[in-house]
Amino acid sequence: MNKIFAANWKMYLNEQESLDFVSKILSNKHLFLSNKVMIFPSHTAISSVKSALQNLSNIQVGMQDCDIEMSGAVTGSNSINSIFVDSCIVGHSERRTIFKEDEKMIKQKLENSLKTVKSTILCIGETLEEKKQDETFKILDKQLSILPSTLNGKKLIIAYEPVWAIGTGLVASNDYIKEVLSYINNAIKSLYSDEILSNINLFYGGSVNESSVESLSTIPLLDGFLVGSASADFKKFENILKKMR
Fold first, then answer.
1. Which domain CATH number covers 40?
2. 126, 161, 179, 214: the active-site residue
3. Would you call 161 a catalytic residue per the annotation?
4. Each residue of 112-140: pLDDT tens digit?
5. For residues 237, 242, 244 and 245, what is the CA-based torsion angle, rounded to 10 degrees?
6. pLDDT at 244
7. How many domains is the chain built from?
8. Domain that holds residue 89
9. What pTM was estimated for this model as a whole?
């Protein structure tokens, strides 16, 4: 199975920079047509990016986050149905740490997203302190406890992102990731039927770049990658995709 590459542009690119990136994609269609790609621009650039990519049906465009409310008096926030998108990220470690989002809040966002869009990425992962205290699996259990009993035919992507590896240049060893993904896989197998499991993918995120992606791609159970800063630099993201040819 070809790996899926989800590009989380975070707040790195403004609308014009996002369109400049897309123009480079359009100039390198052969590469992007041969890969499964998901792009998560800043909310202000979603409409422009979607419009520019409308003829590349293999590229999905999504939201980096959504509000717990579907509509109403919530100044400055964005509902999952505020704009048509293919996917949404919930539970990213930056939302958990910077915005103090807890499991209750993330659960509501997860439910909103699963009701509304085709696919949802749920991010889970431990901090360095939790890893040092051998609490990784305890933390993952807590973060997975919000999973619903059914997905209603929608696709769920569980992205394992050890917090200590995000933006630090540190990459978890293949053996460590393999062990954690195996644990996650066993956990979801205990929750869902084979039919539902066929709609669940496992990703890895955390300093994924052109140097690490080839080795990481050999890990069993790994369906794709959630790429942060390297995905907002066209040359770096292009090189990541080329490595997987």
1. 3.20.20.70
2. 161
3. yes
4. 999 999 999 999 999 999 999 999 999 99
5. 150
6. 85
7. 1
8. 4-243
9. 0.97
